[in-house]
Amino acid sequence: MKTMSTEELINLLDANEDLNIVDVREDNEVEEGMIPGAIHIPLGQIPERANELDSSKEYILVCRGGVRSEKACQYLESQGFQVVNLEGGMMAYDGELEFK
Description:
Elements: E1 2-4, H1 6-14, E2 21-23, H2 27-30, E3 39-40, H3 46-49, E4 58-62, H4 67-78, E5 82-86, H5 89-92
Parallel strand pairs: 1-5, 2-3, 2-4, 4-5
Domain Rhodanese: 15-99
Protein name: Rhodanese-like domain-containing protein
């Protein structure tokens, strides 16, 4: 499974790269802020909502500390998706936040 550091992610965001970020945290956690442009699909909903994702795109998955996003990555990878796990999750991310 591919991984990415939060520093790498921030550099890509700063360069205005076209990224596909999926936040797998729970509703109450995303209220604390999300990475700009991320979509929210809680970990427990990944299997039933995987059809909302485009298998031709690469997705960066994020959670609070990196464990739940790793589980989501394993599942989506087994379904043929290209995924990257954000190491350290939101606890390591110190970039811009967006509130929904």
